[in-house]
Amino acid sequence: MTTLKVNGQTHALDVAPNRTLADVLRNELGLIGVRVSCSEGECGSCTVLVDGEPVTSCMMLVDQGEQHDLQTIEGLGTSDDLHPIQQAFIEEQGFQCAFCTPGFVMSAKAFLAENPNPTREETAFAMSGNICRCGAYPYIVDAVMKAAEKLRAGDGTDRRAAD
Ligand code: FES
Ligand code: FES
Question: Ligand 2 centre and the CA of 37: distance in Å?
């Protein structure tokens, strides 16, 4: 039995230990905001936060997620009450197809927690572990800069996380 704490909720799962964290989050817990593309740790689309740090969940075995606080994009906001980072991505249209967006949002969350007032260059560098096949990079940087403004204005609440 594997126990995962995800978005503030604890789940006991009977899953094979050779499955990846990304696979289990998506296919056992239904957290399909965890996008899987390369499965090789290259694209960042499967990024989740592990104790607040961005991690490519396709490169973690599910058991490695035990004893940690895991957060996916589903732990940030609801469609009626978006997290400021999600809202900023919409306002700045930081996407085209949006496949990569959850990964960028999770990377941005970790980055802005460490650097709440970044330069554009720092933001572009911090997002460089995520790949956008549509090439929406300038808009993604705009979105993260706007998210930083929103968070500095005081609203950094995770809408769904229990604590
Ligand atoms: S799917 Fe995990 S890094 Fe690409
Ligand atoms: S918006 Fe399509 S891959 Fe990034």
Answer: 11
